[in-house]
Amino acid sequence: MMLRGFFSVEMCLKEHRDPRFSKFGGRVFGNPSDFSENVEKYENLRRAAGIAEGAGELADLLPFQANGDLLNMVALDKGCYIGQELTARTAHTGVIRRRIMPFECQGQVRQGADILDEKKNKVGKVISSDTSRCLGILQLSSFKLAKLTADDVALTARQPEWMPDKILANNKTRTSLTDA
C-alpha cells in the first residue's frame, strides 16, 4: 500500500494515531521495504510498552488476557461478533487472572518458554522476546514476585504506563474496567 498525496509527517501521525495507546505514536502506510530498518526499533518499542500484536503473540488468548479492554480492542456496546457473549460475561462478572505483561530480561529468552517463580512453578509463558525485553502472559498473582525466570534468564515484570493500578492491586476479585 502506498501513501499518496501531500501530507506532512505531523499530519500523518495525527490522522493515523494508534488507537491502542495514544503515546505509542502513529501509523504510517507505505511500501514495507521503505521501513525495514525501523522494524526492529518498532518491535523493541512495542515490547517495552507492553503491546502485543499479531497471531503469533495473541493466538489462543481471550480478549481480556490480551489487554483488549485496556487498549481499545474490545467494544462492549457493539454486538453480533464471535465471542460476544463470553466477552460481555467476562467484562461484567468475570475474574481475569492472567494478562500480557512486559518484562525486562537479562538475555535472550525463546518464545514459548515457561515463566517460573522461585519454587519453579509455572506462572506464565513468553510470547515474544529480544535480548532485553519480552512479553509474556502472566498470572497476575505473580506480578510482584521478585524472582521470575524463563530459560534460566532473570525476568522483571513491569506495569505498562497505560495499565491502571487497580488491575494489579487486587487480582482475586474482578479486574476489568467495568468494576465499580
TrEMBL record:
Q: Which residues form the CAF17 C-terminal domain?
A: 97-164
Query: What domain of life is recorded for the organism?
Result: Eukaryota
Under what name is this protein listed? CAF17 C-terminal domain-containing protein
A Gene Ontology annotation in the biological process aspect, one of them, is:
iron-sulfur cluster assembly
Question: Mind telling me which Gene3D superfamilies this protein's record contains?
Answer: 2.40.30.160
Q: Which organism is it from?
A: Caenorhabditis japonica
The entry's cellular-component GO terms read: mitochondrial matrix
| Keywords carried by this UniProt record | Mitochondrion, Transit peptide
In Pfam terms, one family for this protein is Beta-barrel_CAF17_C
UniProt subcellular location: Mitochondrion
**Primary localization:** mitochondrion
| PANTHER family membership | TRANSFERASE CAF17, MITOCHONDRIAL-RELATED (PTHR22602)
